[in-house]
Amino acid sequence: MHEAELVFAHVRAVVGDRATRATSPRLSTRLTAKALRAAGVHHVGGEILHAADLRRDGTQLFDRSETVLLEVLALPRWFYGLYVEPNTPTCAQWRELTDVFEALGGALGARLAPIDDFAH
């Protein structure tokens, strides 16, 4: 159904230890937060997601079903992506979230792909 370790980031982004402002283009916190909120994404503790939350590396979020964990990838005040870790969502739950990433990716020049695809 889906990959175990995925990243949503700009198509040219590098993630992990080699991520810098030059290698990982910034994503819009406003557009991303708006799309994720509309899909029911919230903080692990249930709090509402705000755009500023996407600037804090390691911030953890859940989808509506709480079967997909999202973790913010950010440099100081530079949001460049999300780790996406599915944990047994149903096909419908997974499709709801991937539809969001597909639409958002088109607007931001980003994609949801296996982490290895961002290691260039």
Radius of gyration: 13 Å
- What fraction of the residues are assigned to beta strands by DSSP? 25-35%
Q: Number of helical runs?
A: 2
Give the N-terminus to C-terminus distance in angstroms.
Answer: 25 Å
How many extended strands? 6
Give the overall silhouette.
globular
Mean pLDDT over the residues = 94
Secondary-structure content class: alpha+beta
Helix content: 10-25%
Which segments are poorly predicted (pLDDT under 50) over 5 or more consecutive residues? none
Sheet with the most strands: spatial strand order: 2-3-4-5-1-6
Q: Please write the string of helix (H) and strand (E) elements.
A: EHEEEEHE
Largest sheet: 6 strands, antiparallel
Pick out its properties.
120 residues, alpha+beta, six-stranded antiparallel beta sheet
Structure description:
The structure is a single chain. The protein has 120 residues and is an alpha+beta fold. Helix content is 23%, strand content 27%. It is built from two helices and six strands, in the order E-H-E-E-E-E-H-E. It has helices spanning 29-38, 91-108; strands at residues 6-10, 42-43, 60-62, 68-75, 78-86, 110-114. A six-stranded antiparallel sheet has the order 2-3-4-5-1-6, covered by helices on one side. The model has no long low-confidence stretch (mean pLDDT 94).
Write a compact overview of the structure shown:
The protein has 120 residues and is α+β, with helices and mostly antiparallel strands. It is built from two helices and six strands; from the N terminus they run βαββββαβ.
